[in-house]
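Team,

Forwarding the record for the chain on the shared tracking sheet. I've put the sequence and predicted structure together so nobody has to dig through attachments.
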Amino acid sequence: MATLKLPVADGTLAPYTVRASTPWKAEGTRPAFDRVAYAAAHVVADPLARADPWLDIALDWDATLAYRRHLFSLGLGVAEAMDTAQRGMGLDWTTSLRLIERSVDAAKGIPGATIASGAGTDHLDPAQATSVDDVIAAYEHQCAAVERAGGRIILMASRALARVARSPDDYLRVYGRVLAQVREPVILHWLGDMFDPALAGYWGHRDLDRATDVCLEAIQASRAKVDGIKVSLLDDAREIAMRRRLPAGVRMYTGDDFNFAALIGGDADGHSDALLGIFDAIAPAASAALAALAGGDRARFDAILAPTVPLSRKIFEAPTRFYKTGIVLMAYLNGHQSHFTMVGGQQGARSLVHLADVFRLADQAGLLVDPERAAARMRLITALHGL
């Protein structure tokens, strides 16, 4: 197996030899799960476009949609145009809507494929929003666009609402008005400020206990229009406590990329379903683990996912909002794109030491499909950093 030199935390270099790959899935099979499982999918930039990466958005549409078909083939649903796709960090609403339309069309030809798409307010500059009515109108605009595309809605948290709201009642008013108009039940998305600092104090409180109360009040008031809520607070105890308080029939979709394995596996008190950015990076292992769980083999589920948790915690370490770099690195190492380039130049958001740690942990979790190819590509990255 290939050996390469990689940087470690103290700034020195150490040799690392990759392991053999893990065959996660038999070709031509599509597994069945007893959990709802969405992977929030990344986008593939077009490195050959005549565009300024910090200012312009250019996607490789073929590679972007091919990756969604890959996720569908593994039995995973796709959560489209979410923060994993760099929504709010390089991907604008106009491009997001094109992405949603194309992904929904691609899913139509795949039996069993499920897709849900992010609707928010990001076409509205938070600095230009002056009232909650502006926020309501922005939500209505995007929700209508997703519904016209034939998509199911994930109602994303709003930076504009976090800026203009003066009390929890403003949140209740906005969510009540928007949810009253949607055609089908939606998935709400509570994204913590570790993912987006502009969302600090969401639901009208910086105290998370009080914020949870307001969120639950909003769900209860519109329970017929809420399929579930994705909670991304990286706090498993808080998620479990909130899950116990959800109205009957409302799902908890874990967005906890630190503790997802235990939360999905569950206990005698219940389990969370999944809507996770890390499922993009660990898709083959996630699929195999969920299939084992559906077959009653909890031990195999735990064994498969256990080594993916350190990888996920590394990818999502603080500053957590830069986790997309690790997600795209995994896609590059595994041949799902021919380059390590991102929208907005975000491939430069993490250090070489961080990228090396991701490489080692991915290999140890059996997630490098072709270790020799992955090692060759990692050598290119280290060479670009002067090694």
